[in-house]
Amino acid sequence: MKKKLLISDIAKQLNVSITTVSFILNGKAKEKRISDDLTERVQKLVEEVGYRPNQLAQSLRTGKTRTIGLMVEDISNPFFANIARLIEERAYQEGYKIVYCSTEDDSDRTKELISMFRDMHVDGYIITPPQGVEEDVEKLIKDGFPVVLVDRQVAGIHTHCVIVDNLSGAYNATAHLMEQGYQNIAFVTTDSRQSQMLQRLEGYRKALAEKQLEPAVLEVPYRYDAKQMLRKIVSFFEETESIDAVLFATNYMAVRGLEAISQFNPQGLPANLGVASYDDHDVFKLLKPTITAVAQPTEAIANHVINLMLHLLNPKNKTSEADTIVLPTQLIIRNSTPRKEVVA
Amino acid sequence: MKKKLLISDIAKQLNVSITTVSFILNGKAKEKRISDDLTERVQKLVEEVGYRPNQLAQSLRTGKTRTIGLMVEDISNPFFANIARLIEERAYQEGYKIVYCSTEDDSDRTKELISMFRDMHVDGYIITPPQGVEEDVEKLIKDGFPVVLVDRQVAGIHTHCVIVDNLSGAYNATAHLMEQGYQNIAFVTTDSRQSQMLQRLEGYRKALAEKQLEPAVLEVPYRYDAKQMLRKIVSFFEETESIDAVLFATNYMAVRGLEAISQFNPQGLPANLGVASYDDHDVFKLLKPTITAVAQPTEAIANHVINLMLHLLNPKNKTSEADTIVLPTQLIIRNSTPRKEVVA
DNA sequence: TTTATCCGCTAAATCCTTTTAGCAAATAAG
DNA sequence: CTTATTTGCTAAAAGGATTTAGCGGATAAA
């Protein structure tokens, strides 16, 4: 295990000062009027011996770690996993590392994680905020850290934010089901008061109201595990028999819900049932009845988020106004009829 | 933005030396014979003012970051996302952070990531290694870093390793299909030479050989995207019409493959086709024909990995022999008949 | 009485950079 | 011929902790 090279080793080799080497390595050769000749010799040696500055020492001195903290609700949820993956990709290209973790939508846990990230000296924060962390996040902002919220907004936090048009998404999905002739459309959602969930509910209600149809909403407690959720959905369907179509508020609820439904029909899902889901899923196209889905623009979300963050991290940019980016969803219609895709 | 507290602030407040405070905070009060009285006063003040040591300074001095680098093939793959999630959970409990990233099974990328992790001074490495990184990983080991491999082995790397019994898993799935009466069982896999894939292939071949059945293997190039993969599978089925059952080597190939199959049957998947998949998937139970799956013990994998890593990170433990842990899979049989689960 | 040991704590070195302030020699300006 | 300015580089401080080596006085052992 050969011992790590130090900047002093480089300096000694070339009979120059540490300062000079540091300037050159940090691209300040010109600014500090180091001769081109010396600049080259230093760069050549550094290259040859493979010297790499100690990042801890660098960070200690500069206060920057070139690390971004990413807190999603659940990294094992494909929606977040995909976004994380795309953000990570871009971040690495720009010389940033990503540290991520799952909040589980728990405010205490989230507070702890924020504090952990502070301890780690991350340069910026990307967060899908649960309720109840307003103060902690506002504190981050007040302390001058770049903060970008994703997927949901929280009243009381005034910062940059990337979300999708949940209301229209749910509205369009519901409208589509109505166009197909369904009259008793249920909405299965969670009981959490996350903004994106409330907006989806509103979109559903709005579409029904326009046709004077009655809403039928099931709120499954957020903390329910797969089994409990399944049971809850089963009994909901038992109680409200007239239902002929369902809109699920998330893809994992759709999966669980379809499982519940199939318990009625050992032969499989009833072909006459109308099913739509907020958030698409790889396997929806395999199911019968095929499932219409509100696809979220994960790539666009990730791109906007990381662009915003990189912009904020660049000291050259003045701190711009907090702006909210709302991205459109796409309704992916999967009927027996030829499939079309329509921008919502 | 109140300025950060320093250890010197604490020391000054109590008229003691920085050293003393440091000893107390690091649990060396007894060892260094600091009086109980002073120890308490220091702890009380630290608590009151909320002092937290600067981790960068700590790490610079100690050389430890309490960070573990986790490199999986693809964090957006549910199998890895789940493992990552579980590992993260335990790591946080033990005061370790996890930094993770996706190798995409690309050796150059992986080498870069290893080098990045070194620069970050992570304390340990958890890796799903692609081919071609033997030297780099061996170097890590030689330099004294704890390294644990997951999901696959690579010849030439001699270190701790947690894998599953791929051969038996594939063997059991194939045997099950044969018991159901299927005679022409295809195996759809990737062309990558990853150890776990080769073992699955071997399990499949072994089962067929015992009954003198002919194998029919399709290797889809690893770099193919969803569309290309689909096309490849479609043409395979067209060419080999006699096939009456398929074993897919991964769950994402299964999803793609089922899509391909359903292109023949606009009504849905043919009910008489036998389908099994290595790696289970949330939605398999919704499909017709239901899909028998080789479930991997994600929780056990994650637990073994993190336990091993924590053990290695503990300086009290002598460096133990490199050992390979092989975990059993579970064959989840989903037939029209009542579902049973059998340990493989 | 002398020597050794223990007690309770601390000064200073160390980890490895970046950055501020400035020096000595050479050139330009007055 | 002074006095500024520029040039090319550097010494030393700073960043915030951990850790080694040790100090002066009190007690115990010989």
From TrEMBL, chains A, B:
Gene3D superfamilies: 3.40.50.2300, lambda repressor-like DNA-binding domains. SUPFAM superfamilies: lambda repressor-like DNA-binding domains, Periplasmic binding protein-like I. Residues 7-62 form the HTH lacI-type domain. GO terms for molecular function: DNA binding. Coiled coil: none annotated. The keyword Transcription regulation applies. The keyword Isomerase does not apply. It comes from the Bacteria. This is LacI family DNA-binding transcriptional regulator. It comes from Pontibacter anaerobius.
